[in-house]
Structure formats: C-alpha cells, structure tokens
Amino acid sequence: MIYSFKGFIPVVHETSFVHPQAAVTGNVIIGKHCYIGPGAALRGDWGGIILEDGCNVQENCTIHMFPGVTVLLKEAAHIGHGAVIHGATIGRNCLIGMNSVVMDNVQLGDECIVGALSFIKEGDLFEPRSLIVGNPAKKIKEVSDEMIAWKTKGTQLYQSLPANMFTEWELCEPLHEIPAERPAQEHLYNNWKK
Hints:
The chain is mainly β. It is 12% helix and 34% strand. The chain starts with a strand and ends in a 26-residue tail after the last helix.
C-alpha cells in the first residue's frame, strides 16, 4: 500500500519490491534493488525516509521519526524482522537484528552489527564495525571480516529477492494435500549451516 501525504508521493525504484501488505507513506525514497516485506510500515509523514540502494526492511518493521527529521538507511542496510528505527541513521552495510529498537539521533557507522532484541538509546553514536548488543546496547567488540562476509552474503540474498518476487511470486489458492511430485527445496539455496 503506497500512500501520498500532504503532497508527498513515495518514490520507489522500479527494481525494488514493496509487498502489498506493507505501508509506505509520504516522503519516502526507496533506491534500487530494495526489499520491503509484508507488515513493514515506512511513515514519511512528519519527516523523510531514504533507503539507498540494496537495503531491505523485513516483515513487521517500523521506520518513523519526530517532525523535521530524515531517517537514512545507507547502501545495503539490513533491517531484521520486527525491528524499529526511529529518527536514526544506519550506516552502509549494517545489520539491525530482529526485534531491535534504534532510537532518535542514533548514528551507526558503516558495517555495524546490532544483535537481536537490542535497544539503542537516543543519541548514541557508534564507530564503524561495532558489534552492538544489549539493553541498553553497548559495543562489545569489533566486527570481524568473517562476520561482515556472513552479513554481506545474507544481504545479497535480499538484494536478489525483488527480481525473484517479480517473476516467481503470485497470488494462489492453497492446496488441500501435499502433492506426490512436490520437489525438495534444497536445490534452490545453499544451506548456511550443515
């Protein structure tokens, strides 16, 4: 669902996918190869929201702000299921873990990783490659090359997802029993952990 607000119409690049059960309102700009999942709410009513290329905002995330603020997700930012971003700047290639809350005036440097269920309080600043966890969240160590490679691999899956959604996704009625010829799904993706 895409909504204009006070004359601001969201801008969504044609290579990005916004699920019909997401709500994108007002002053929102979504770059190339972004994925916005069902239940996500991006409310650009009181301020702006900018998603640079390759970002993903997964299911049931909320992005909002106080009046006059612009929320910025830099290139390849990865916002995990159920996270809330309110008035913050998320650096390039960052990961925000599931159900985390990132409050107003927070600035995350590039390639930070925020653990699931973390709470980053208003005004906190974190240098690039910080591993951040807890409530209140604190830096516990540097993000390693191995961690950022794992994060980047996960984000690449989401960057390829919009094209797959445009070609492979369609509304359907459910089956009432499992068909005998139902294929295994393993051939579609490599398992991350064996």
